[in-house]
Amino acid sequence: NEDARGEAWTLFYLGQALEEDGDTDRAVRELERSRTMFSRMRDVYGLACARHHSGRVTRDQRAAQTGNLRNSGFARQLLMDARADFRRIKVPYGEAWACVELALIDAGNGRAPQALELCGEAAELFASYGDARGGDWA
Fold this sequence. Notes:
83% of the residues lie in helices and 0% in strands.
């Protein structure tokens, strides 16, 4: 008997470990595999987490390759989808961190007002559940 949800979470954590080890190509592949599995089983929380981390790693990978954040469209879309998922299932910390990651993309693309607005939204979300450290990041 297979445990698809367990396999999806294993791939998710493997992707994070590969990123920590500097292997971003494999990290993205494993995060995308987990994203596909969570999507198929309709696990919205797992899907949101996989989208968030895949978007973040993809953004950082592209920035390392190009020296800027101008080609972050796919990463931005993943992060926007993650934010919407976290909001829909009422996970404020996930939504807040997605806002912070989106703010980095906006700031890197010369959209400072939008980045600041996202930081403000993140700060409000962090404050809503008493996360002062998260608020400091925002």
